[in-house]
Amino acid sequence: MQPVSDLPLAVRRGIRVVLADIDDTMTRDGKLPAASYTALWNLHDAGIAVVPVTGRPAGWCDLICRQWPVAGVVGENGAFAFFMDGSRLRKLSHPDAPEPTENRARLASIAEEVYARVPGTRPAKDQFSRLYDIAVDFREEPPLLDFDVAEQIREIFESHGARAKVSSIHVNAWFGDYDKLSMAKRLIADRLDLDIGSQSANLQAVFCGDSPNDEPMFAAFRNSVAVANIAPFVDRLSHPPAYVSDSESADGFVELIETILSSR
Tell me: domain 2-96+178-261, CATH 2.60.40.420, correct? Predict the structure, then answer.
């Protein structure tokens, strides 16, 4: 991984869209600092689209899409994307995401097995506003558990045929063949007329993340960036990011945005 300051000048000048995880990427200690929010507005004012790509629930994504300066938001690890069409909120559902209520009972049953078998685990507090997945909290609120526990949670869900991803705070599990990357591609093609599968369009995009559930994005984007708190996970990644910030979390995100905008 190279320092984010090594992002070539020509690449910085060609960026049209910044995609980024939220928790522990834009945020610090669970809060969105003023500097991160200002960075989002600075991108917006420079004509660069912003697309948060998150495991957070539909309820959060509704608010983000309405109140943040974003072109759209991908939620629940790729089950859907929201965007504003004038003053109307629109939704793109992933074609491989089942109906929201279809697997709720199965996921809840597996989650109960997790809570019984892995001490200290519990439902994420944002579960009430989720449509497609189950989120198990292992590190957002006390007791703060280590990442070996997260791997146990993931393995239990996968043993039942569910998909599961580890973030910096939750393990998210769902049924359906979708992920952050496939939904992000659909949203960007629809809203920005960019096919990020093509080399020229891929060079016009940057992705920034912080944890193992961002790995498909790190692999897909030539201009993939991680904030410095990726360090504990690097050995777990088959596809690490191309660049890394000097600073952690929100400070690292702001570092990336300032690097991009310094060329404008």
Answer: no
